[in-house]
Amino acid sequence: MSLPSLKIGDLTARVPIMQGGMAVRISMAKLAAAVANEGGIGLIAASGIKPPELIENIREARSLTDGIIGINVMVAVKEFANLVKAAIKERIDLIVAGAGFSRDAFKWCAEGKVPFVPIISSEKAAKLSERLGASAVVLEGKEAGGHLGTTHESTWEILPRIVKSVGIPIIAAGGILHGADIARALSMGASGVQMGSRFAVSEESNADIAWKQALINAKPEDVTLIESPVGMPARAVMTEFVKNLKAHGDNKPKIRCVSCLKDCKKNYCIIDALEKGRQGDLKNGLVFCGERIGEIKEILSVKEIIKNLVQEYEQAVSPVGIYG
């Protein structure tokens, strides 16, 4: 059995896989376009950059693919409104937003005729999103990387409740690494999946090789939760930066604060830490990852990743497979 397509509004992705939007500058034009070219939905990470850089990446991605390209942006960043409006003006295919909830974004996207897809972790948020006009929701459980809406409920625990709560497409996220995970999510009523960690460690990912190698080498005990300056828990690799953060409670930035977040605890500069991590500075950098990152052992191209996922899915749903 082949993978079904994923419909969000008037958009149809040939494979029901959305690539997670990973900031800062991990998932940019090259990665998003590569996923779109394989029939999935590619997302450009807008958090931590300015509108001109986002516009440049949207246009670059458009030059590389005629597939579906969206953006992922944190509601918590001060540039949120400007980034969303810039993407709408560029006729982006869809907008995904997390790390907060914005009622305004529903209005902006409705006026611009762009599907809006909030990231949620509860039935209440899913119902509110549908009522406000969301085209779909990304359901993120505790297994996800980066900022987390929940640290105690698994994607698999929440998913059945969300399926019963709303009628819009549900995209399962958090702990989705293999084709069997996709089969499981779809069998439980999800319309598609979002995958971050698997694409973070791809050839097209915009991260330094040291960043990717840190993820590949990570053991379960190397993955930990930290408190983000945005006021949410987040999952990351235990770099020296994170060790210092846990030991001392802060990592005060030695750079001039540019007030990039709407509300910031200022215990450290997350944008600076994420950017240093991306550049391979693991001593001073932050490396977000999913709970199951230790299962990824090699850097592959997006084409190889999706080919493997399709094969694994077909095996899982075959008569002799675990979901057959």
From TrEMBL:
Any matching Pfam family: NMO
GO molecular function, one term: dioxygenase activity
Annotated InterPro entries: Aldolase_TIM, NMO
Keywords linked to the UniProt accession: Dioxygenase, Flavoprotein, FMN, Oxidoreductase
Superkingdom, natural source: Bacteria
UniProt-listed SUPFAM superfamilies: Inosine monophosphate dehydrogenase (IMPDH)
UniProt-recorded name of the protein: 2-nitropropane dioxygenase
